[in-house]
Amino acid sequence: DADVTQTPRNRITKTGKRIMLECSQTKGHDRMYWYRQDPGLGLRLIYYSFDVKDINKGEISDGYSVSRQAQAKFSLSLESAIPNQTALYFCATSDSLSNGRGLDTQYFGPGTRLTVL
Amino acid sequence: GDSVTQMEGPVTLSEEAFLTINCTYTATGYPSLFWYVQYPGEGLQLLLKATKADDKGSNKGFEATYRKETTSFHLEKGSVQVSDSAVYFCALSLYGNKLVFGAGTILRVKS
Questions:
Q1: Which of A66, A87, B10, B99 is the most exposed place for a label (fewest CB within 10 A)?
Q2: What CA–CA distance (Å, rounded) separates B107 from B20?
């Protein structure tokens, strides 16, 4: 079984709809992240969480919200989807105890392809 | 702000050719540097990393050396295989393990 899972893997929705993307991990890591990938732009950080009670905005948080329901679960919501949120979304995890100095390796899920019409 | 610039792709090579993918960075401090690889239909996975100047990261025949004087971290492999076809991302991390990614370089290897 995969260590970092994302659901759904593909989603097509309409402008104005509320969408939730879910991420679960079995690695026991404390840190979780949400990124979006756009062609030619690489990955950009949306939100990150260093533990259950810690939520931080990333580079492009406008139009998104997150919930850290448990150490193993981190959900991303689009309150009112718009077409320019069409992208590939990745969840990632890391373990703050593995290395220190912010050098912990991030482990990525397989991604969710979201299309907003 | 902090940023990473990679050579544009796609890069198309024949099997057993030498690979170089250029990566340069701009950072306000002394970052750690990473190469991630994304195979078709999959998430990213760490390929190699280096944490200080002159460090060399290596894995699966790939190498990259942290060059502070040229702010570069170029990825090299002596002999590529078809199975190396993927998207390669250079990234840096300064504080709190927030990664800043380059745009990615598509590598296509022909048999």
A1: B10
A2: 10
